[in-house]
Specification:
By secondary structure, this protein is of the alpha+beta class. It contains 16 helices and nine strands. It starts with a helix and ends with a helix.
C-alpha cells in the first residue's frame, strides 16, 4: 500500500479508522458531533488558515495554508521523510476564537496518521460554545497501544504504535486592557469581577503517535504555550544529541514543566486577594477550579508514567532513559502536590475570613436588634401615654355630653313657657280690672302676629328641608351609601 492509497477515504474520518475499540469508540457518533461542531471549531476563511510543521533536523518550519499543500506534504514519496519526527502546531488567535485550520484539513491530517477517536473529544474542548463545566472539569488523558506499521509493511514484534492525547490546563497573564471599553462586550456575560482578573485560563491539546518501527513520533499541538513553542523550536533544530532520540516522550516533560511555571504566581495572586470580602466568593470559586485542574494534571502525569512503563516493557526504551523520565515525572507531581497544598491553605484561610465576617455580621445584627427593641419599647410607652390621654379626653367628652343633655332637657321644658310669657308680654294682649275682676282683651290685629309666626315657621322648616336635601345630594359618602 502506497501513501496515496493511505490517503483514500479521509472524508469519512473517523469511520475509516481500523484500530478502534468497537464496544467503546462510537465512531459514528463522533463523526456526527464533529460535523455538527465544525463551524464553531474550525476556521472557514482560507486567508487565515495556518498549519505549522516542524520536522526533526530542519530548522525552518513548514507553513501549510491549503488542503492541496497538506496533501502534497503528507504523501511525499521520500521514505526517509516518513521516518522523521514531525510536530504539527494548530493555533488560534484567542481562547474563544476558532482554530486556524479548515475542517477538511483536520480530517485529512487525522486520517493519514490514523489518530485514535479519543483525540476528537480533546478537540471538542476548544469549541467557542464550551460551557464552564466542560471547560474546567472535562479533562482527561487517553492512551492507546496497537499493532501497526508503515505502508506496505507487515506486523512484526517492533510494529507497536503508541498513542496518547490529553488537554493540559494552565494559567497565563493576559495582555488585555482592563479599562478598554471594547472589552466590555465579552466580559458582560462573565460579570464585572472577571474583568479585574489579571490571569486567564488556557488549555493546550497534545497528541503523540509513536511508531516503534520508525522510531519517530507524530505530534499534534493545539494552542501550544509560548514557552513550550520555544523548546520545540530548539529541540527541532538539534540532530544527533536531541533529547527526542533519548526518550520518545521527553516533549511531554517540556509541556508539563512549561505549563507548571505560572501555577505558583497564579495561586499567590489569588491568595493575596482573599482578604477582600466583596470578591471572596469569586476567589474561592477560582481556588476550587485551580485545585480541580491541578488534580487533573496529576492524572495526566500518572498516565504518561504508565505509557512510559509500557514502552519500556515492550523494549522501546531502555531502563536508564526511562528511569530519568520517571524521575522527572515524579518531581513534576511533587510540585503539583505543593501547589495543591497552597490552594488548600488559601481555601482554609478564606473560609476563616468568611466565618469571621459572618460572626461580625451576626454580632452587628444582634446589636441592631437590641437597639430596635429599645426603640420599640420607647414607642410603646409613648403610645400608652397617648392612649391614656385619649381615654381621659373621652371621659371628659362624655361628661360634657351629659351636661349638654341635661341642659337641653331643661331648655325643652322651659321653652314653651318662655314662648307663652313672651306672647302675653306683648302689646297684643291688654289687661283691665273692674269690680268683678281682671279681664284679658286681645286686639283685633292679633291674627297678623299669628300669620307672621306661622309663615316664618314654614319658611324655617322649608329652608331646613331644602338645605338637608342639598347636603345629601352633594355628599359623596352619602351617595355611596345610597348606591350600596
Amino acid at each position: 500500500m502506497t501513501f496515496k492509497h493511505q490517503m483514500l477515504g479521509w472524508e469519512k474520518y473517523p469511520i475509516t479508522l481500523s484500530h478502534t475499540v468497537r464496544w467503546v469508540d462510537d465512531v459514528y457518533y463522533l463523526q456526527e458531533q464533529l460535523e455538527k461542531k465544525s463551524e464553531a471549531l474550525f476556521i472557514n476563511e482560507p486567508l487565515k488558515i495556518k498549519l505549522e510543521v516542524f520536522t526533526q533536523g530542519v530548522e525552518t518550519p513548514h507553513n501549510i495554508t491549503t488542503i492541496t499543500s497538506l496533501e502534497e506534504f503528507l504523501i511525499v514519496p521520500d521514505a526517509v521523510a516518513h521516518e522523521q519526527t514531525k510536530i504539527f502546531i494548530i493555533s488560534q488567535r484567542n481562547s474563544w476564537t476558532r482554530l486556524k485550520i479548515s475542517f477538511e484539513m483536520f480530517k485529512m491530517l487525522c486520517h493519514f496518521y490514523q489518530v485514535f477517536p479519543k483525540y476528537i473529544e480533546s478537540v471538542f474542548r476548544f469549541s467557542v460554545n464550551t460551557c464552564r463545566t466542560e471547560e474546567y472539569f472535562s479533562g482527561g488523558c487517553y492512551r492507546h497501544v496497537h499493532e501497526g506499521g508503515g505502508p506496505g509493511s507487515e506486523h512484526t514484534n517492533n510494529s507497536a504504535i503508541f498513542e496518547i492525547s490529553y488537554n493540559l490546563r494552565h494559567f497565563e497573564e493576559h495582555s488585555r486592557n482592563l479599562q478598554d471599553p471594547e472589552s466590555s462586550d465579552r466580559f458582560e456575560k462573565y460579570g464585572r469581577q472577571q474583568l479585574q482578573d489579571l490571569w486567564s485560563s488556557r488549555q493546550c491539546s497534545v497528541y503523540q503517535n509513536y511508531s516503534h518501527r520508525n522510531n519517530a513520533s507524530i505530534w499534534i499541538f493545539i494552542q501550544v504555550p509560548s514557552r513550550t513553542r520555544y523548546h520545540l523550536e530548539r529541540l527541532n533544530s538539534e540532530r544527533n544529541d536531541s533529547p527526542i532520540s533519548d526518550h520518545p516522550m521527553c516533549i511531554h516533560l517540556h509541556v508539563l514543566v512549561s505549563c507548571e511555571k505560572n501555577w505558583g504566581s497564579y495561586i499567590g495572586y489569588l491568595g493575596m486577594n482573599c482578604h477582600q470580602f466583596q470578591s471572596l466568593a469569586y476567589l474561592r470559586r477560582k481556588l476550587e477550579d485551580a485545585r480541580s485542574l491541578l488534580k487533573t494534571n496529576l492524572g495526566i502525569a500518572s498516565t504518561l508514567s504508565d505509557q512510559a512503563e509500557e514502552m519500556q516493557r515492550r523494549g522501546v526504551v531502555v531502563a536508564e532513559p526511562n528511569e530519568r523520565f520517571q524521575s522527572e515525572v515524579r518531581q513534576y507531581k511533587l510540585r503539583l502536590q505543593c501547589h495543591i497544598c497552597n490552594v488548600k491553605k488559601h481555601l482554609a484561610f478564606s473560609e476563616d475570613i468568611r466565618l469571621l465576617v459572618f460572626k461580625i455580621m451576626d454580632f452587628r445584627n444582634d446589636e441592631l436588634l437590641r437597639v430596635n427593641s429599645y426603640s420599640l419599647k420607647d414607642v410603646a410607652k409613648e403610645t400608652a401615654s397617648e392612649n391614656k390621654a385619649m381615654v381621659t379626653i373621652a371621659k371628659q367628652s362624655l361628661s360634657d355630653s351629659r351636661m349638654v343633655k341635661i341642659t337641653t332637657v331643661i331648655a325643652t321644658i322651659y321653652l314653651p313657657l318662655s314662648l307663652v310669657a313672651s306672647f302675653f308680654s306683648t302689646g297684643l294682649v291688654q289687661y283691665s280690672e273692674n269690680g268683678e275682676g281682671a279681664n284679658i282683651t286681645m286686639r283685633n290685629a292679633t291674627w297678623v302676629f299669628i300669620v307672621i309666626c306661622v309663615s316664618l315657621m314654614a319658611c324655617t322648616l322649608a329652608s331646613v328641608y331644602f338645605w338637608a336635601r342639598r347636603g345629601i345630594k352633594f355628599n359623596p359618602f352619602t351617595e355611596k351609601l345610597c348606591m350600596a
